[in-house]
Amino acid sequence: xxxxxxxxxxxxxxxxxxxxxxxxxxxxxxxxxxxxxxxxxxxxxxxxxxxxxxxxxxxxxxxxxxxxxxxxxxxxxxxxxxxxxxxxxxxxxxxxxxxxxxxxxxxxxxxxxxxxxxxxxxxxxxxxxxxxxxxxxxxxxxxxxxxxxxxxxxxxxxxxxxxxxxxxxxxxxxxxxxxxxxxxxxxxxxxxxxxxxxxxxxxxxxxxxxxxxxxxxxxxxxxxxxxxxxxxxxxxxxxxxxxxxxxxxxxxxxxxxxxxxxxxxxxxxxxxxxxxxxxxxxxxxxxxxxxxxxxxxxxxxxxxxxxxxxxxxxxxxxxxxxxxxxxxxxxxxxxxxxxxxxxxxxxxxxxxxxxxxxxxxxxxxxxxxxxxxxxxxxxx
Length: 380
Ligand code: GDP
Ligand code: MN
Fold this sequence. Notes:
The chain is built from 13 helices and 19 strands. The chain has helices at residues 5-14, 28-37, 65-76, 125-131, 149-158, 166-182, 219-222, 232-239, 258-270, 287-299, 317-330, 346-355, 364-375; strands spanning 2-3, 22-25, 42-46, 59-62, 79-80, 83-84, 88-92, 96-107, 112-118, 136-140, 185-196, 201-203, 207-210, 243-246, 251-255, 277-280, 305-312, 337-343, 359-361. Helix 2 runs antiparallel to helix 3 (65-76), helix 5 (149-158) crosses helix 6 (166-182) and helix 8 (232-239) packs antiparallel against helix 10. Manganese (II) ion is lined by residues 191, 205.
């Protein structure tokens, strides 16, 4: 789960990282009001969960509250990389002398977090990493010891930070480490961390990615999930404990098990089809879950056929089949449905579904072929 810039920076501030004064606005009028409170010179920043907002025109400097209002109007009507801008952050404008990069992520190969700094911060850090990797300093953090002062000094020295800023930099590096650790983040990043013309260090941008598997330990952070930026269907799916990801194809997939779901998508592609989604309904296949999953799949207008691929293990095939039928009483489906059911009591299950006019298949290959044929309107 990604946090928005304003959420990340507020979180950093709790750990002593200096951030600009500012607030979030959802209307141009309130952006103007915030600009007035902040003294007029502000930066209007679109809050969307993508990088490169600056280059896309989603970050603009305003010299007066009136200009802040105009720019907020523009930015609030923008779409950046397909995402509508619904909020702007109005921050006191900073006078920038230098832009530094500072971030922490997991280095899986080293099995340790790594803190990364570069004097060439700002908007093109990926380019810096590609073209001049020597400008990027990396220091591994022992998770049991935490970030040590000498490591923060090594980073400061490595990026040729003037001595006068070492104390402040050390404090920020520690704050970032504490933020990262306390939130079970997989990324905590400040880009740019700036030196202002009046010689202060300030985190101008903030980005945090949290580990979804640890979110249960952080109900306050989980609540920050920006529902309107996610596809509605994905939010709905989460409610029922389904893992759903919408894709671009036209074959809706309902599968029990993530690995089986991936295999199903591969086979569909092998036979020239395109999956409309990834969907793992998890263990069992209660009528309630199947019905929820069907509703979610059918909300996507691109879907022309639904492919059920169910492996009956502990849940018996006939139970699954009855679950599907009960779900169909609740959700009307007007497109072809292909089912492949194997495992315990598969025979009985298939019979139940065939009696209900569903297309059944014995193997995954034949199920995929039938689904692809059904899309093309041919004989299934
Ligand atoms: P990103 O493009 O999504 O990474 O957004 P950032 O928040 O990092 O902003 C991009 C760039 O806009 C920064 O690298 C700065 O150069 C510039 N910028 C952001 N805030 C300010 C500010 O308060 N004053 C000035 N002068 N420039 C800013
Ligand atoms: Mn940035």
